[in-house]
Amino acid sequence: MAVVDPDDPWREVAVGERGRVRVTTLLEDLFLPNLLERDSAVRTGPHPWFPWDGVTAVRPWTPGAGGEDMEGAVEGVY
Is the model's pLDDT at 64 over the cut of 80? Predict the structure, then answer.
């Protein structure tokens, strides 16, 4: 999972910045690389127990609006 620049999905945003969520799914019988989700999130740094980045403030992605809040929208979970 990565939080990326919506205009350049290959560039990760800095910790603390909002961007679009990009995930890669790898299962025994399924591989979905670099899938842009319909969510925006703020990238957080690693937790002392887990050495990878996380996300917070997950919201539905709004193209052209920078992923701002949509009142009454359900928040996703990763």
Answer: no
